[in-house]
Structure formats: C-alpha cells, structure tokens
Design brief:
16 helices; alpha+beta; globular; 10 strands; four-stranded antiparallel β-sheet; 438 residues
C-alpha cells in the first residue's frame, strides 16, 4: 500500500517524484509529461497552483467561441469551455439560425437563494414557533456585520422561517432562510449567516423562559449549509417565430419540422430515459459557459437536475408548442451564479471571458447561460428530427480519431475526402487509415 504522510507539505517536484516512484516505476517520461503542462510564467503558474491543494500540473480544456448570439437584441460572442466534439459548432449554428429570426429573449424571473439550519427538537411546536418569531430581530442583529456590505448593494437576508419536517424524520426541524446575494454567487455569505443563526439557536434557547429544561436540552443543531437547489432563482430563455419562417436549407417543410420538433420535446417531457439525455444536451451549453466564467458547474448541475424532477418525475427542462401558426421553444432554468468573487477575480481567462461578454452582472449572466443551454438543445433536437445526431457529431469527432491515430497531413486530407459522403465510425476510419499505410 502506498500510504504517504505529509504529502501536502512536499514541494510540487517532490509530489511528482513520489507519484512516479510509487505508481509509474520511476518512468521519467511521466515527469516530462506533467511538467510540459506547467505555465512558463512562474507568477501565473503559482496562481494556478494555489487554486486547490496538492497540485502537480495543469489540466487544459479547450476554450471556444460561439458567435452571433442575439439575446434581447444585443449581439454576443459566447465563450465555452468543453471537451466534447460538436458542442460549440452546434451552439454557433443555433445562434446564427435564430439571429435571422429575431434572436433569443431571456428574462430573470426571480433571484432568491436558500440556506438551512438543520436541527432536532423534542417538545412543543407552538413554543418553538414562538421562540423563532421572537428571535427574528436577534438573527438580523447578530448577522449585521456580515450583511452590511451586501445590504449596501441591495441584497441581504430576505426571510427566516421555521419548517416542520417531523413527519419525515422524528424531531427534525429546520430554519429555512432566503437570501438575495446580488452579483455574487453568495456561498460564503450565506454559510456565514447560517452559522450565526445556529449560534443564536444554541445560545438563546437556553434562556427562553417558555421552554422546559428538557426542551432546552433537546435542541441540537446538526448542520448549517446553503442549498444548491434554487427553484426561486430562475431565468427563462425562449425563441419564437411564425412556423413558415423556420424554413431553411435543412428545413424544407417547416410545418412538418415544427410538429416533429414539438413531438420530440413532448417525448422528453413524459419519458425519463429520453429526458436525461435531452437535459444533458442542455447542460452541454450551460456547463461550457459556466466553466468559462469561473462558476460552479457541479452546483448548477445538481440544482438543475433536482428542478427537472420537481414534479416527482424527472422530465424535460425545455418545452415547445405551436399556437396560432407560431412556433415557440422555451425553458426555465434555476441558476445561482456570480460575476464577482471566487475565480472571477483571480483566473485570467475567466476575466477575459467576462470582458468578452461585456462584464455582465449576475442577472445578465443568468440570461446568457440559459440561452446557451436552449441553443444547444434546439440544435440537438433539430438534428435528431432532420438529419440525425451522428452525422454532424461524427464529423467533428473525426479529428479526435485522427489525432489518436497520429495521422499525417496527407492522411488527414485523404480521410476527409473519403468520408465526405460516407457514414463515419471509429472502426471505419481505422480501417481506411490502415489501408492508406499499406
């Protein structure tokens, strides 16, 4: 067993030496590989090293640009960080398609974020309600130093409510707190407030005269933490046009296309197996821009998928309809984002991405990211209901296959010409390249 003590105290070079010695039979090509991804700018590399613990090198993902996004009558070039073939191309294609048809519309519906103090209490619920009501001013007073700067920006604590969950878990209650964190994602702000609420519960409950001694002793705080489920931090993205205006090179019969498109979305609304992949396509667009702008894609993913299951059954995030000869495609998405704090102030490429988007506030970034998700979904469903998803995807994936085969320039040209009108598969490409090399 390769158990190591004090790994975090080793230098970066020492960490690499330990890994190579214990896991790669002292293969020095591994050392060279890891060091080849170090940044030549020592100051920049130090910045990256300090983002997380135990860093040994950098892991690069491509940053692409999807131009021609018209959102609320403003044109954007949208930065996207992703490794999957065809995502940026699909987003760009959808952006250009809708730019000619009025563009995307986006509206922030609400910006409420949530945190909870989870605690146990055995005793009178009525007394507990009286206690929480009496503590409202104390909660605000005890967090005044934390909230004063946020309040200057128009944010802060919106409400603190007692929630009875004893029907689901014996003696379990929670403080359900709602916040507006303006342009910051607000995780540290929310968690700091919650921990102070917890301190108030612990300390003030011992002095609350209505509680018996056993009730005072029974109140036990379990944990205090924000929630990444933000069903009231919502943005809507949508596109619409007359059905006949959908006509394009790929769409010869717009009425038939619109009907098939709506049916495809309806299938995702009622069939979970399809909904998961349908929504994954949405998140291709969402996560790519979330990453580019230094936000937390894991939190976004968790919250979005919980929202997709809010009815008790996992379903499509997007919806489509034809009403009075007009096609409409839309989506409501929960997005807790920030444009200040965290990596937004530290990572040079994140700064670039936000500048490219003309330094949006959090609400504007919500709109841009939701539109990127809707565009990606439109492109995917459009492909599925016309040419099929694999034709475009495999053309983009072809470059990855050729890179794996270390194809020469002449081989690449021959492969591209050969597969212009043929179905692309991994095995077919390998077979053709092998024939070329014979």
């Amino acid at each position: 067993m390769n158990i190591v003590n004090g790994f975090s105290k080793l230098s970066k070079e020492q960490k690499i030496d330990w890994l190579v010695t214990n896991y790669f039979n002292n293969d020095q090509t591994i050392v060279q590989l890891l060091k080849s991804y170090w940044n030549n700018d020592e100051k920049l590399q130090k910045l990256h090293d300090e983002f997380i613990e135990n860093t040994i090198t950098n892991f690069y993902l491509p940053l692409g640009i999807a131009p021609n996004f018209v959102i609320n009558n403003k044109v954007y070039a949208v930065p996207m960080v992703i490794e999957e073939s065809s995502v940026v191309a699909a987003a760009s294609n959808a952006a250009k398609f809708w730019a000619k048809r009025g563009g995307f519309k986006a509206t922030v519906l609400s910006t409420e974020k949530i945190g909870n103090v989870h605690f146990m209490f055995q005793g009178s619920k009525q007394k507990l309600e009286q206690f929480i009501e009496q503590m409202q001013s104390v909660f605000k007073a005890r967090t005044s130093e934390i909230t004063k700067n946020m309040e200057k920006r128009g944010g802060g604590i919106l409400a603190i409510e007692l929630v009875d969950k004893t029907n689901e878990l014996e003696n379990y209650f929670q403080l359900h707190a709602t916040f507006d964190t303006k342009d910051s994602m607000g995780a540290n702000f929310i968690n700091s407030c919650l921990e102070e609420f917890a301190n108030v519960l612990r300390e003030e409950s011992t002095e609350f005269e209505a509680f018996s001694q056993s009730e005072k002793d029974s109140l036990q705080v379990i944990m205090s933490i924000l929630s990444n489920y933000v069903p009231n931090c919502l943005v809507r993205a949508e596109v619409s046009c007359k059905v006949e205006d959908l006509a394009s090179k790929e769409i010869e019969n717009p009425q038939e296309f619109a009907e098939r498109f709506v049916q495809a979305v309806q299938i995702a609304e009622i069939e979970t197996y399809r909904a998961v992949t349908h929504n994954k396509g949405i998140m291709n667009g969402v996560d790519a821009v979330v990453l580019a702008t230094g936000n937390d894609f894991r939190a976004i993913e968790a919250g979005v998928h919980a929202f997709a299951a809010k009815s008790g059954k996992y379903s499509s995030l997007s919806h489509a309809e034809i009403v009075n000869g007009a096609f409409r495609f839309w989506m409501d998405l929960p997005l807790a984002l920030g444009t200040v704090g965290g990596l937004t102030n530290l990572h040079p490429i994140v700064k670039f991405a936000l500048e490219l988007l003309e330094n949006p506030n959090a609400n504007e970034l919500m709109e841009i990211i939701a539109v990127a998700g809707l565009a990606q979904n439109f492109a995917a469903v459009k492909s599925l209901t016309t040419t099929g998803i694999q034709k475009g995807h495999m053309k983009m994936h072809l470059m990855n296959i050729l890179n794996q085969l270390q194809a020469t320039q002449n081989e690449r040209l021959a492969v591209l010409k050969h597969f212009e009108d043929k179905t692309i598969s991994h095995n077919a490409v390998i077979d053709f390249v092998e024939k070329l090399r014979k």
